[in-house]
Amino acid sequence: IQKGRNILRYLDETLDMSYEISANLSSLYDFFIYQLTNANVKKNAEMIKEIIPMVDELGKTFKEAEKSLRKKGA
Asked: What residues contact 39, with CB distance under 8 A and at least 6 apart?
């Protein structure tokens, strides 16, 4: 849980807030951190299971965006 929170904090801290989407991503990261923190405090694995699909989907979106950028740059 702590490692996940650290990763999310890093992602949040490195956002370029000059882009509109950055505020949305920051809110999403905050939500994920909140869920992880609560799951840890309450010792409730279900809270983590709830966000796993969202985190997976975000990761897939980033991978697709990277592929798209590489194609444009090629």
From this structure: 1, 45, 46, 47, 48
Nearest Cα to Cα of residue 44 among 35, 55, 57, 33? 35
Dihedral (CA of 67, 73, 71, 21) sign: positive
Q: Are the CB atoms for 9 and 33 separated by under 8 Å?
A: yes
Which has the closest alpha carbon to 47: 55, 39, 37? Answer: 39
Q: What is the mean pLDDT of residues 13-26?
A: 96
State the Cα–Cα distance between residues 28 and 11, nearest whole angstrom: 11
Q: What is the pLDDT of residue 8?
A: 96
